[in-house]
Design brief:
Blueprint: E1 2-5, E2 7-14, E3 17-22, E4 32-35, H1 66-71, E5 77-79, H2 114-124, E6 127-132, H3 138-151, E7 158-162, H4 172-184, H5 188-206, E8 215-220, H6 226-233, E9 245-248, H7 264-290, E10 295-298, H8 314-319, H9 322-337, E11 342-343, H10 372-384, H11 389-394, E12 413-415, E13 421-423, E14 427-428, E15 434-435, E16 438-442, H12 445-450, E17 452-460, E18 463-470, E19 492-496, E20 499-502, E21 506-507, E22 513-514, E23 521-523, E24 529-531, E25 535-538, E26 541-544, E27 554-556, E28 559-560, E29 568-571, E30 574-577, E31 581-582, E32 588-589, E33 600-602, E34 621-624, E35 632-636, E36 639-643, E37 656-657, E38 663-665, E39 670-676, E40 687-694, E41 697-703, E42 705-711, E43 714-719, E44 743-750, E45 757-762, H13 777-783, E46 788-790, E47 808-820, E48 828-836, E49 839-841, E50 864-865, E51 871-882, E52 884-889, E53 898-906, E54 913-919, H14 929-935, E55 942-943, H15 971-981, E56 984-989, H16 995-1008, E57 1015-1019, H17 1029-1040, H18 1055-1075, E58 1083-1089, H19 1095-1103, E59 1113-1116, H20 1135-1167
Parallel strand pairs: 5-6, 6-7, 7-8, 8-9, 9-10, 10-11, 16-18, 33-46, 46-56, 56-57, 57-58, 58-59
Antiparallel strand pairs: 1-4, 2-3, 12-13, 14-15, 17-18, 19-20, 21-22, 23-24, 25-26, 27-28, 29-30, 31-32, 34-39, 35-36, 37-38, 39-44, 40-43, 40-45, 41-44, 42-43, 47-51, 47-53, 48-49, 48-50, 48-52, 52-55, 53-54
Helix pairs in contact: 2-3, 3-5, 4-5, 6-7, 7-9, 9-10, 16-18, 17-18, 18-19, 19-20
């Protein structure tokens, strides 16, 4: 065996016996590292034990630490959910594969052995609550029940439940219940109840006679949603004969929904309100459960509240505040008074983090005087137990040494029943009276090799924090930052304090000498320029050079120009012809590869579309500049918390961009990072990429990219794509930085007067030609046989992000619910919130009627309930600007959730304008209804858009925009692609395009599309589908215009959007035909319909406004899919069975298309057309 990490010394006493001296650290890799360096296969290393000092003689017979046993002594029930890894699918489901006491670890995938769990319950004298694997077979259940009956002390009860939180799919039990419910046809919740009933029968068959009273079978439902309890109890078998208790987890959480900028007292107030509000919710569950003759329990309880994990995390501070002690105390009393017979707290121990502060104590050796939740729970127990904590200690048969009379173990530890003290962290000695500082160090690279010193910065209790104090001229968290006086004149890198390394073409101590190379050469000894190959000296420095430089000019470095190139692109003096043309000047017509083709393609863009991979890169993300965010220690409540935000992905700083999407300036300590060729898993071009840019500043590269050469305006970067599949985000155990791949480019600095811009990242082999040949040859090759290219994805037709929005000015807003999930139900919601981007616009209490205040009080517990009026009117105290809103469901059932509503705005309270109107069919989940509603159908809530907010031609993406992947690809690239491939173009006109946009777009295609190509024109994409923005917009516009009436052939509620789709389509077609009147046969108009619904939709689209007389083509979505769609039932199918469903779906689709064709024939015949 080998050892590392916090091991000071190793004593190899004898074969099979090693002593190690451990000094635990607080930084870096810490703990005890053990390596099996070699083993004999015939007699392998095994049975490794690492025994805590003082317990070598007793560990075999007493496996639990006395301090651990003492921490559990007052609890009546021990729930083993975490010990059994109930949320993992990796726990064995058969008895033969279960973890035994001899298994090397009781904390691995298989969880702990039943033997250890039963032993712990026996020693503590507590009842045992087991969370049995959701997928375990009947034999597992029988063997487990038999062992517990035979070995658990007879005065202890047993609680059993299936998995953990099977009511939601975030954990394994819920996922498995969904799968099995679909496969068996019982449904999610009812399969869970049915399996619980089966497990109940097995266990009750073991616990018979006098033993029967010891067993309680438990089923879980969702605390925040009484409808969940209703649905579970409605399932077959949900009776008190089979299920003894229903358990919920009524956590109270005061962190969610607090206003931005709230202080600790506001957060604590919010927790207090949330704690008190649980009583009414619990009572609602109790009434439902008691009516079925069952008990109500809490399987988990206590304060929740995930925060942000920083050193100022208000949620963590709240959990450590003295007020939390009283909150926990009163909360537990409220649960009991509301009908919960048994409350189980979560959890016995756990460190705080951004995911929550769940632990009753933060560490086993935490000073109990600092553990406020522990104190609150002990006070509750003192009220309700026959023996208080103080009385219990008096019964202890032994006493422990103390240096402070009257204080147990000098106040620095706990007295064990053995008579020995167990010291709290930071205390030592037999009586725990001596203090030893715990050192926390944040001095990376020892202050970057002595450019600073590591010194004590602060002392908190028994903890000391050390950080770097930098020497003169050095800055940064690790003193790694330095500067050169002139910044090397933006012509080089500052390598050390005052030391410049000049780019090629510049010289001098501060790179002040410009040799006149214009970025394309290097200095000679006389400070003149030696130009690079492909360049020659000119008046402005090194200029392009080629064979035709003095006659026709050059198209790039070393790239000759062409005298004529009619239907092609000139590359190094040679015409590369578009498909369908040949000859020296590309003027001869020849057959194309797509000649006679009957197929088109919806073109997508991949990371290989452009030879400049910057064109398909991600959006910018704000991060901290290198070594500017120091690690922080803070003393919150009574405990130390360390955070380091240096590597935070997205630090919240504002991003200032130019019109072309490049950084205009940077905030202090800010850098901007973007990603290119990301997640291609080796499907990228390896090799040396050439990066060019304009402006002053610094660009760095990382992940799979390594910069190897620098010069002003150019960086050569080696790219070697990686693919570690185990690191992808869909893996179960994602590791930080493990998934880093692709080219990461970071703008570390930029000059606002001459900012870095026009960044290009050119693939190997394309540097000379990328200006004239933007598309990768592979990309073009893949498209050569398609007759039509549809640009729906390239145009981002389904998005509205490229369309500017005018914020709404309002002093008052009125939110009116016009429909609920269950018709006729009184609408309810808990919170209505308005924003301008990320800023929350607070309601003014003096400007808002008290009737509506519950909807805007920033408290998700309080609710607004519509009565005689279904409107909420909110005032802001003055005219404010807002651009979006969101709302949260009530804490009750789904029946009262709004599904249709209207939002109006007013600056004076007298004149109102409708600024939004919605009909939502979104699925609001059973288990997280509130956040689902807050998110809305669009990112960041419901975005407000005025009728005048239209898509203008000036808003379109241009070829110069940094990335063509963010807001759509420029029309110039679309027409170029169609020209090069020789394909007809299919244009999807955005649903918000103004008439002027439509006219200019039509003119653009007329001016630039090759003369032998047609253009297909369609109004947006799938306007009949309300899953897309354009479908919802058409529904709203059709309703506002009153287009639906008694003549609708289609369903009257949907008719407005079909008719608006027709109306706008004909308007667009008329504009295109007017522009293309010189070539009318080249314009083909398309109106699209669905194939998955009623044929009356198609009939409406064709007959309204006699559309069939003005439209050339009817477009359909003829996807090959199974008739009933793909859902959870497919988990029970074999591959062949799934394929058979697809084959059947093909025949159904064929019949649908034939039906549509018959309708077309009927309409034509009826109208004589």
């Amino acid at each position: 065996l080998g050892f590392n990490m916090d091991i000071l010394r190793i004593y190899r006493k004898s074969p099979g016996h090693i002593e190690i001296q451990v000094e635990l650290e607080t930084t870096g890799n810490n703990g005890i590292g053990i390596r099996i360096e070699r083993t004999n296969p015939a007699d392998p290393v095994r049975n490794i034990r690492v025994i805590t000092p003082g317990y070598e003689a007793t560990h075999a017979t007493s496996p639990f630490h006395p301090a651990y046993l003492r921490s559990l002594e007052r609890f009546k029930v021990l729930r083993f959910m975490d010990w059994m890894h109930a949320n993992s699918e990796n726990v064995p489901g058969t008895w033969a594969d279960r973890v035994t006491p001899d298994f090397w670890s009781q904390g691995g995938d298989g969880g702990a052995s039943v033997e250890l769990m039963v032993r712990l319950a026996n020693e503590v004298g507590a009842d045992a609550w087991f969370n049995l694997p959701a997928h375990a077979d009947d034999d597992y259940m029988l063997q487990f029940a038999t062992y517990v009956k035979d070995h658990l002390r007879p005065d202890a009860q047993v609680y059993v439940e299936l998995g953990n939180e099977a009511w939601h799919p975030g954990f394994w039990a819920g996922q498995y219940a969904q799968q099995q419910g679909a496969a068996t046809g019982k449904g999610w919740f009812c399969w869970y109840i049915a399996r619980t009933v089966e497990v109940s029968g097995i266990w009750k068959g073991v616990f018979t006679g006098s033993e029967a009273a010891r067993l309680k079978v438990v089923a879980q439902t969702q605390a925040s949603n009484p409808d969940s309890t209703v649905q579970h109890l409605a399932c077959e078998g949900a009776t008190s004969d089979n299920i003894d208790a229903i358990a919920i987890a009524p956590y109270f959480d005061g962190y969610t929904g607090i206003p931005e900028g709230a202080d600790l007292e506001q957060v604590l107030d919010s927790y207090a309100v949330a704690a008190d509000a649980q009583a009414a919710l619990v009572k609602e569950h109790y009434d439902l459960v008691s009516a079925k003759g069952m008990e109500l329990m809490s399987y988990e309880s206590g304060p929740g509240g995930a925060g942000d994990g920083t050193s100022e995390d208000l949620a963590i501070q709240a959990h450590r505040h003295d007020r939390m002690k009283d909150m926990v105390h009163s909360y537990m009393n409220n649960l009991s008074a509301s009908g919960i017979g048994l409350s189980v707290y979560f959890a016995s121990c756990g460190a705080p983090s951004q995911y929550g502060s769940w632990g009753l104590i933060e560490a086993q050796d935490q000073d109990r005087l600092e553990a406020v939740k522990y104190q609150g729970l002990q006070a509750y127990l003192d009220e309700h137990m026959s023996c208080t904590a103080a009385e219990l200690r008096q019964l202890q048969p032994t006493s422990c040494p103390t240096a402070t009379p009257g204080e147990e173990c000098s106040g620095g530890g706990q007295c064990m029943y053995s008579g020995a003290c167990a010291c709290y962290r930071g205390y030592y000695g037999d009586d725990c009276s001596q203090v030893e500082y715990i050192e926390y160090e944040s001095c990376g690279y020892k202050c970057t090799f002595d450019q600073g010193v590591c010194a004590v910065n602060a002392t908190f209790g028994v903890s000391r924090y050390w950080n770097c104090q930098c020497g003169p001229g050095y800055t940064g968290a690790t003193c790694s930052q330095f500067s050169c006086p002139t910044g090397c004149n933006q012509r080089g890198h500052c390598l050390a304090q005052g030391v410049c390394s000049c780019f090629r073409g510049y010289k001098g101590d501060e790179c002040e000498i410009d040799c006149g190379c214009a970025h394309h050469g290097q200095c000679n000894s006389f400070n003149a320029c030696i130009c690079d190959q492909g360049y020659r000296a000119g008046a402005a420095g090194c200029e392009w050079d080629c064979a035709t430089v003095d006659t026709l000019g050059c198209t790039g470095p070393g790239q000759s120009a062409c005298a004529a190139c009619e239907f092609g692109t000139c590359t190094d003096g040679e015409c590369r012809c578009w498909a369908g043309y040949a000859g020296a000047t590309c003027a001869t017509v020849v057959p194309r590869a797509n000649e006679g083709s009957v197929l088109g393609i919806n073109v997508a863009y991949s990371k290989m579309t452009f030879v400049d991979v910057m064109k398909t890169s991600s959006k910018w993300t704000s991060i901290w500049a290198e070594d500017t965010a120091a690690g922080q220690f803070s003393y919150q409540g009574n405990s130390l918390l360390f955070t380091n935000e240096q590597y935070t992905w997205g630090n919240g700083q504002a991003i200032a961009l130019t019109e072309d999407g490049y950084p205009a300036s940077l905030e202090p300590n800010q850098a901007l990072i973007g990603l290119a060729v990301r997640d291609v898993c080796l499907h990228g071009v390896a090799g040396r990429h050439v990066v060019t840019y304009e402006g002053d500043g610094e660009i760095d590269f990382g992940m799979d990219a390594t910069p190897v050469a620098f010069q002003k305006g150019r960086i050569d970067v080696d790219f070697e794509p990686t693919c570690r599949r185990e690191c992808w985000f869909d893996s179960g155990d994602w590791e930080p930085y493990c998934s880093d791949n692709g080219i990461a480019f970071t703008v570390q600095s930029t000059n606002p007067l001459n900012p870095i811009r026009d960044i290009r990242i050119i693939m190997p082999g394309f540097f000379s030609s990328h200006n004239t040949q933007p598309f990768h040859p592979w990309f073009l090759k893949n498209l050569e046989r398609f007759k039509v290219i549809r640009f729906m994805d390239w145009a981002h037709t389904n998005s509205m992000g490229q369309v500017p929005r005018t914020p709404v000015q309002a002093r008052y807003v009125r939110f009116t619910v016009t429909g609920t999930k269950t018709s006729g139900e009184t609408p309810r919601l808990s919170e209505l919130e308005f924003r301008l981007e990320d800023e929350v616009i607070d309601a003014d209490e003096g400007d808002t009627d008290a009737t509506y205040w519950a909807a805007v009080d920033k408290d998700l517990v309080t609710e607004w309930e519509g009565g005689s009026s279904t409107s909420i009117t909110v005032g802001f105290g003055s005219v404010r600007t807002l651009d979006r809103y969101m709302w949260s469901t009530s804490n009750r059932g789904q029946a009262s959730d709004p599904t249709t509503w209207r939002l109006e705005a007013s600056t004076d309270g007298a004149t109102w304008d409708v600024v939004d109107e919605r009909t939502t069919t979104q699925y609001v989940t059973y288990y997280r209804r509130s956040p689902a509603a807050r998110n809305g159908q669009e990112e960041d809530g419901y975005l407000l858009r005025l009728p005048t907010d239209l898509f203008e031609w000036s808003d379109r993406v241009t070829p110069n925009y940094r990335s063509q992947a963010l807001h759509g690809i420029a029309p110039e690239y679309m027409v170029r692609l169609a020209n090069e491939v020789g394909a007809d173009a299919w244009v999807t006109v955005h649903h918000l395009a103004s008439d002027d946009f439509v006219e200019q777009e039509a003119q653009f295609w007329l001016d630039n599309l090759r003369g032998d190509a047609k253009v297909y024109v369609e109004h947006s994409n799938e306007v009949w589908n309300t899953l897309f923005n354009q479908g919802r917009y058409a529904q709203e516009m059709g309703t506002q215009l009153g287009l639906a009436d008694g003549t609708c052939v289609a369903y009257i509620d949907h008719c407005p959007r079909y008719r608006y789709h027709v109306k706008r389509s004909l308007e667009i077609f008329a504009i295109w035909r007017r522009v293309w009147q010189s070539a009318p046969d080249r314009v083909k108009t398309v109106i699209s319909t669905q194939t998955g619904g009623s044929i009356t939709v198609t009939e409406e689209l064709l007959t309204y406004m006699d559309a069939y007389k003005h439209v050339d083509f009817l477009g359909v979505t003829a996807y090959m899919t199974a008739d009933e769609g793909i859902g959870y039932t497919w988990s029970a199918l074999t591959v062949d069975e799934a394929l058979a469903k697809f084959v059947a779906g093909i025949e159904t689709k064929r019949a649908t298309v034939q039906e549509i064709n018959q309708l077309l024939a009927t309409i034509k015949a009826r109208e004589g057309a």
